[in-house]
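## tool: complex_structure
## caller: assistant
## args:
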Amino acid sequence: MKPNLTYQDLMHRQGRIFTLMGIGVMIAVPVLIMVFTGVGPDLEKMFIGIGVLSLIYLPGGIVEVATYSPILGTTATYLAFITGNLANLKIPCVMNARQIVGTTIGTEENEVVSTMSVVASTLTTVFIMTFGIILLIPLRPILSSQVLQPAFNWVVSALFGALGYKYFKGNLKIVAIPLLVMVVLAFLMPGFVIGNITIVIMVGAVVSVLVAKLLYDKKII
Amino acid sequence: MKNFYLSAITVNEIKESWWMYALGILVTLFIIGGSLYFGLTAYKKGKELNMSREMMKKTIISSVSFSILPSIGIFIGVITMAGLLGIPLPWIRLSVVGALHYELMALSVAAEGVTLATLTVENFVTIAFVMTISITWGAIFALIFFKKYQQKVINKATQNGGKGFGKILFDAFFIGMISAYIGDAVAKMVHYEVKLIENGAYVLDGSGNPVTEDRSTVVPIIVMASAMMAMAFCEWLITKKKVKWLENFALSFSMIFGMTVAVLLGLGGIY
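## result:
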């Protein structure tokens, strides 16, 4: 290790090693399925499938790294981009933890808090998945029941509603315009909003940051 | 490629085989190992920075309590896909980067028109490859560009720490994100077309197109508003009534309240 390596540099190095290993583990799964079954994929379908999905997820990947990494910080970005569920779990989880303990983005304390938050969140998901699979037989009828279905259909709405109160309350001057833009967009292009939430989040974030910058420059906030 | 494992093996045996579960366990152990390593490194750094144990404990408790309900939602995704693909593959896919809507899309592209009755081993292998490879873009970009992006853009934006616009920037950013989800809930009220799912795959019509149904609904916006009100009530309890322990659980309780409202609306016939 170079003596002048900063904590951030070190975290990048470890994060990159973890990401490389993560991608390796991910790709090893279909390869091993192929080895164990002795059956290869239908190459034509595979390349078409990867091509079609990459048209959506390649730009999505760039947007996600650009949008979410500043919130997550160094280590948590690498961890979250392997474990997934960013918009619906990791990002709000980190923002909630950050607000509870009161750290500021860009500081080393915040780096520690966001890493611990993503670690705790990841381990919770792993625990629930494992526990759920072990107890699948008794749990399946409960979790798939018609009565409970709406609860989990709208878990993300409940999450952003609750978090929305905290953030909107403290930033009332910034809220109005991005909210109005999103509601107008929803009325004009509902299909686009529902089908392209990653892009819509980016649009919302850009509008909101521009409004905040304008208000800040005019010394209103 | 010649099958050396078992020539007469069926896809139903493969998707629930012991070695598929073993692969799931390996992926899970990798995630646990990586998380614990980074968690420990962060803990040591926190001690070095003289951060209090209380602060770190609060971070962990709030994050765990926050993650339980969305994680159950993710697990329901495993159950949804299990009908077609068995338990282990969806379990693996949703443990690393996956998300239900993405996996279903991958499935419909990789094995168009496939149903439980027509699924073959080749379909299963193709689905596994497509699901895995197309979702790695985010991780690849993080691997290649994140360091430069952080040094050239993020560090500059946040260099003033608690002072200046840097402090407001990320709150504004997150407000944009919340507004987008409110927009999503409003859009679902205006027009919400859902692709029907049966046995873990999209239902297709005679020409191979997914069958859709209009399910425009007011439920998500009501759920959001209910969770918001519940959060306001929790905040009142925390600040005015000094119920300090509630701080770490306020978000979870507010979410449970919002989700309960969804169940009650469902019982009243509003979905």
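## assistant note: The longest helix of chain B spans residues 53-85. The longest strand of chain B covers residues 193-195. Handing back to user.
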